[in-house]
């Protein structure tokens, strides 16, 4: 069997999703773990989305709309983007896979920050492309250095804003620099999975740049603030020629009927969106205070997670785990010496606070 495998697949790392509560309960005997590791919305999905799923179940025997037309129309109306520029995907991850399938060949190059979301690398390497990793600078993507890494075989540059795992963003000046500095035949992929959590008034409106530049591809998701991670639905905004190319390599029924219905309903629930934002804002400020009181430094975030330096507690991940708090170990994210903590609801944040104070000797 080994002989049959493509070399790219043989050498490909397996994505690690982190510990689940069931796994921790089995291994450590802790039955009531709090999961603060995967950047999910602690409020869950919109009630409108839940009701839409119930209704869609009546038609579960029918194939879904392969074109996701109703959802694309709803996104078009909300974003002011033409329907022909929207591709609905099986989570944002599928968009990265489709971009790789459609545009990358063995020997091509993709430039990314380091660290960044691992799906970009996995998609590119599956097609035999080389991934050029440019180290972050002060926890931010170093756009000038990324542009210097572009050469003749480069097909894509990927920016993530807010950046997973640091929570930092790309400024308007940096986005303009990237677009003006890239060759005409290189795609700029901007992953905005956490966009709806951004509260920086100076954050750039990527749609303004997208409208004027066909090289730009924007990916977004319903997995984060919309609370639909379990249904796997995202979308890509791209020029019609890029969308046509991606359509050629996607599965015919890539997004199921329930996910389409839930996402369309979630877009209508502005109240749930604002509650989610407000919970995140309050939780972020509360956790900042706790971290400061515990002497733990952190990276100010524009997302729904906080990257925390281990400092004097090199085993902070395991210490939290033994107290029933599941966070993400920075080593698995390419940034050792840190943990990434999802901002939870009030009860989850209180449990985290108690655990941190216990670890740091303040409780």
Describe the structure.
There is one protein chain. With 363 residues, the protein is an alpha/beta fold. Helices cover 39% and strands 15% of the residues. It has helices at 7-10, 21-28, 47-56, 69-79, 91-103, 119-126, 143-148, 172-181, 206-210, 240-249, 257-268, 270-293, 316-322, 346-359, and strands at 34-35, 86-89, 109-114, 130-135, 154-160, 187-191, 216-221, 234-237, 298-299, 305-309, 325-326, 328-329, 338-342.
Short description:
39% of the residues lie in helices and 15% in strands.
Topology:
Layout: H1 7-10, H2 21-28, E1 34-35, H3 47-56, H4 69-79, E2 86-89, H5 91-103, E3 109-114, H6 119-126, E4 130-135, H7 143-148, E5 154-160, H8 172-181, E6 187-191, H9 206-210, E7 216-221, E8 234-237, H10 240-249, H11 257-268, H12 270-293, E9 298-299, E10 305-309, H13 316-322, E11 325-326, E12 328-329, E13 338-342, H14 346-359
Parallel strand pairs: 1-11, 3-4, 3-5, 5-6, 6-7
Antiparallel strand pairs: 2-8, 7-8, 9-10, 10-13, 12-13
Helix pairs in contact: 3-11, 4-11, 5-6, 5-10, 12-14
Give the class from helix and strand content and strand pairing.
alpha/beta
Give the overall shape, derived from the CA principal axes.
Answer: globular
Written as H for each helix and E for each strand, in order along the chain, the element string is HHEHHEHEHEHEHEHEEHHHEEHEEEH
The main sheet comes to: 7 strands, mixed
Measured between the Cα atoms of the first and last residue, the distance is: 55 Å
Number of separate helices:
14
Query: Tally of extended strands?
Result: 13
> How are the strands of the largest sheet arranged?
2-8-7-6-5-3-4
Strand content: 15-25%
Average residue-wise pLDDT? 95
Taking all Cα atoms into account, the compactness measure Rg is 21 Å
Q: Which percent range fits the helix content? A: 25-40%
Q: Regions with pLDDT < 50 over 5+ consecutive residues? A: none
